[in-house]
Amino acid sequence: MAEIITDIISKYNYWAFLILLLMGLHAMISKNNLVKKVLGMSIFQSAIILFYVSIGEKKGATIPILAHGHGTEQVHQTAAQMVAGFVNPLPHVLMLTAIVVGVSTLGVALALIQKIYRVHGTIEEDEILENIKE
Amino acid sequence: MKLVSLVVTLLLGALLLMATADFPDWGDPQSPASLHVSDYYIENSMEQTSVPNFVTSILADYRGYDTMFETTVIFCAGLTVLTLLRRNHRRQKKVVMSRPKRENQDLILTSAARMIAPMMQIFALYVVAHGHHSPGGGFQGGVILGASFILLALAYDLRTILDRLKERRALIMCGIGVAIYAGIGAGCLLLGGNFLDYGVWGKVLGVSPVEARSHGMLGVEIGVAITVMYIMFSLYADLSSGGEMDEGL
């Protein structure tokens, strides 16, 4: 029992992102309103971003920037100390670009919803489907 | 639909929870994500590019192609929103209800926005220019710059801001931002290097190839910031007015 509890505590970041991810997925599937669907997609995306950033974390490490830049004590450290001292910068870079794509897709999605509203006069999915059938 | 969705999400949740057992612990330095290429960047980025911020050096140099097409993606998104929404409403019948006319602008709101906006812009310029040495860079600075214009558009109305920041000019500047990025990359080809290999710019700038990489990154970040700023504003202008470019929200 104690093992399971320590397992959960040592992996709590996955639980947090999992809850966010499921919230987003549930909203995307079950909501009838298109704006709420898009919001669900945004929440889903945030969960993925949190997941990536969290796997780059190292215990006791600092942000991936050399303090004071040029020629200070950190430059003289050994390679192993350097690697242990900074969190993994690669997930940060990947997520930086993912955030930008997220904003773009959100913008295009909202524009499409506005266009749908112009044509059908509603953004409820079932009413749009009825409109199309007629 | 709600029931189906709940079953599907809970099933997926259970599956993913089972999978977390195989994942590394929170903050584990030996996690697989941190064992391969990322060490190389941490060890060598300072010597190879003279940029202390590893994130910037990876973003703009090691993964320069990725970031260039990233900038193109947001440029395309801005154009897509424009082509979807922008319209000449003499031709199309208006379906969207017209919004009530705003009478007087709120004095406190406009004064506060007028004071905050220049601060935001100066801070954004700092974030762009100091992105090599501290957290920041082109995307972040560009978003803050764009937000300052959106704040003004919210406090006044969209038309007031569009008088100062013409839609046409905003779109041209978006293109210029991408062109700056691609131009710096193409300049490397002309100077005898590879595409986006900023080191060769040292011959022109009169600095060592390593320092030239840092300067090249700054130029690229400025291009990114210009594109992001104008696209953010153009997205807001299109979405808030439904493509009419009238008073906005």
Helix/strand layout:
The complex is a heterodimer of chains A (134) and B (249).
Chain A: H1 2-10, H2 12-30, H3 34-55, H4 79-85, H5 89-120, H6 125-133
Helix pairs in contact in A: 2-3, 3-5
Chain B: H1 2-20, H2 37-49, H3 54-62, H4 64-85, H5 107-129, H6 138-155, H7 158-164, H8 167-190, H9 202-205, H10 209-241
Helix pairs in contact in B: 2-3, 3-4, 3-10, 4-8, 4-10, 5-6, 6-7, 6-10, 8-10
CATH-derived architecture of chain A:
Orthogonal Bundle
Oligomeric form? heterodimer
Principal-axis shape of chain B equals globular
SSE order of chain B, one letter for each helix or strand: HHHHHHHHHH
Task: Determine the mean pLDDT of chain A.
Answer: 85
Overall average pLDDT of chain B: 86
Distance, first to last CA of chain B: 34 Å
CATH topology of chain A: Helix Hairpins
- Count of DSSP H/I helices of chain B: 10
